[in-house]
Amino acid sequence: MTNKQQTYEIQLDERSLILADEQVIPELLHDPNQLVLPYSGNKKSLFQYLDTLEKSDRFQSILIFSKDLPQLYIDLKSLLLWIPAAGGIIRNKEGQILTIFRRSVWDLPKGKLDPNEKFRIAALRECEEETGLHALVLGDKLAETYHIYREKNNARALKKTKWYILHYFGNDLPIPQISEGIEQIEWLFPEEVLLKKPIHRNIFKLIEKYIKIQSAKNKGDL
Does the bond joining 198 to the residue before it have cis omega, within 30 degrees of 0? Predict the structure, then answer.
């Protein structure tokens, strides 16, 4: 039996829109720069919260809570373009991970799904295309991230990215995919990646989670 999802943390630039089940609210009230509101059921009101996060630096995050979290998420999703994507943390034999520098920000390889493509297949394809590495071995799913951004026509889009751990046992040098805006590509130890600036907040948190999982495995806790 799977655990019921109790929160969605959605990045919007470097701020967060958090959707939460009302039962977990006490665990989340720790940010003085956070606005906390109940969901009224009027889904168009969600636009106001997105506008606030986009146009004002008053709040670092806005937390919307509801008794019916799945419906709240569906309501938000219905207002935005839906973009499924997949990406990966590529790990080499030395325990380093492959990090890319794209559009002046440190990032990880990822991309949108092709029509009817599965997330796992997309993760493998995108990682190979963006890094030039082949014979990658797909491992476990690591996490899901959510990101709201503006398309070229200024419409808001909600991107859900599923992240996987991939393994590379070869010795070829990675080749950045210039057509995707990748300027630089480096093998770094995970702790080194966390020192890179600037780096997307959701990528930073993803690598933190990866480090914790690897540490638990090394200690035999997993």
Answer: yes
**3-state DSSP: the chain helix, strand, coil percent, rounded to 5?**
30, 35, 35
The pTM is what?
A: 0.91
For the chain, the straight-line distance linking the first and the last C-alpha, in angstroms and rounded, comes to: 19
Give pLDDT tens digits for 98-151: 999 999 999 999 999 999 999 999 999 999 999 999 999 999 999 999 999 999
Q: Which CATH class is domain 85-219?
A: alpha beta
125 C-beta neighbours (distance < 10 Å), count? 16
What are the tokens at 162? 């599923």
Q: Which residues of the chain have pLDDT under 70?
A: 1-3, 26, 28, 30, 221-222
Domain with CATH 3.90.79.10 in the chain: 85-219
Considering only CA atoms, which of 89, 88, 90, 93 is closest in space to residue 169?
Answer: 93
Distance of CA 149 to the CA centre of its chain: 12
